[in-house]
Write a structure and sequence with these properties.
heterodimer; A: mainly alpha; 3 helices; B: mainly alpha; about 0% strand
Chain lengths: ~140, ~120
């Protein structure tokens, strides 16, 4: 690692763009985790008592999703960093970061948009669920 | 392995990765905004505030529906911006920002009405 070769350790970009992006994913995962915890507290109370147990399902799913998102963001950042370093002039393919998740070779492509679409679907599904729960609970309040 | 979605990555050339990363963070910020709108709408209904019931429910549902719509909107704008980056075209305008401004204004007016006519 000494000599003229490019440094493959350390941040790729002095603006720390990959790192900031991973932190943005973490904020999002934390927001989902907090929302899930709050929903565990309130959804069972908003549903008819016969269905109260179902009120725990979205929160449980959301907590699992938040954990999955957190670790997927970590792997995404490592893959992105490995790919970025592989694009540096003089980089040797196959001799990349020690922290590479999937073997010693650098990925051919940077990460795509699959994880973004998964998050979109998750957020939209949670929203639709909340519409249903608010409608049900307001119908109950008017009936009772 | 082809990158997903092909409608973005099949066209143009790889932009400066910092721009792609910034676009990704913008998508995440919009997604969190959507989640916050949903949470606000649920909270408005759950807290049992002493507001006009109809206006309160309208404000709550408008917040949640908008929050739900912001999620696919964020994805769509991410694709649009990424395509523009890959083709070195000017970035598209912030359509969802207009939606957000209008909805927040209407929700505010609904809450005011709910306070006045409780």
């Amino acid at each position: 690692m000494t000599g003229q070769g490019p440094s493959v350790r350390g941040p790729f970009d002095p603006g720390l763009q990959p790192e900031r992006t991973e932190l943005a994913w973490r904020r999002t995962a934390l927001a989902i985790a907090i929302g899930s915890l709050v929903s565990l507290r309130i959804f069972p109370l908003m549903l008819p008592s016969a269905f109260a147990a179902w009120g725990f399902v979205p929160g449980a799913v959301g907590l699992v999703a938040a954990c999955a998102l957190w670790s997927a963001a970590r792997r995404r950042q490592l893959r992105m960093t490995a790919w970025l370093h592989s694009t540096l002039p003089g980089a040797m393919p196959g001799a990349m970061l020690g922290a590479m998740p999937a073997g010693p070779t650098a990925p051919q492509d940077p990460p795509g948009g699959g994880m973004l679409l998964a998050l979109t679907v998750l957020a939209a599904a949670f929203g639709i669920l909340c519409i249903g729960i608010v409608v049900v609970s307001s119908l109950l309040a008017n009936a009772g | 392995m082809r990158r997903f979605p092909a409608s973005v990555y099949a066209i143009g050339e790889e932009p400066d990765p910092r721009f792609s990363l910034a676009n990704e963070r913008t998508f995440l910020a919009w997604t969190r905004t959507g989640l916050a709108l949903i949470a606000g709408g649920v909270a408005l209904e759950v807290l049992g505030l002493d507001l006009h019931v109809g206006f309160r429910l309208a404000a709550s549902l408008l917040l949640i529906i908008t929050g739900t719509a912001v999620a696919p909107l964020a994805w769509w704008e991410w694709m649009r911006a990424e395509r523009a980056l890959r083709q070195s075209r000017p970035l598209p305008g912030a359509f969802s920002a207009v939606v957000l401004a209008v909805v927040v204004t209407v929700v505010g007016l609904l809450v005011v009405a709910g306070v006045l006519w409780r």
